[in-house]
Task: structure prediction
Amino acid sequence: MKPSLNLSFNGNCAEALRFYERTLPGRILFELRWGESPLARDAPPEWSTKICHSTLIVGNTTFHGVDVLPGTYESPGGFSIVLGIDDLEESDRLFRSFAEKGQVCVALQETFWARRYGKVVDQFGIAWEINCGPPATPA
Result:
């Protein structure tokens, strides 16, 4: 079994996945627009260029993305995506990228369990936690 993540968006899935592709980094393997799909008749005409299904690969993790039909979107809640990072500079870079146009919930800082930890909800409404390695041990 290999779990994957399915992220729902309210019309900005393509923009979000391109941002994640650059930021994480990853690779978009597949995009199907509503107007090109067998479900095209279920979507309003203005939704034809929105994403019906997409796949983004980041390391060994698969993210699926979709622009849900108008009137059916629900803001994500009750979860966050945790990124385990070993490099301090990379943790800082990722946090800054997600925080730009987003909302910082917990500032990136040293904790008793990590050299850096922070939580942010990005501009697309997805919650991310950056967890960078174990804390430094006193000399």
Remarks:
- Residues 5-67 form a domain with the Signal recognition particle alu RNA binding heterodimer, srp9/1 fold (CATH 3.30.720.100).
- Residues 88-99 form the longest helix (12 residues).
- The radius of gyration is 17 Å.
- The chain has a mean pLDDT of 95.
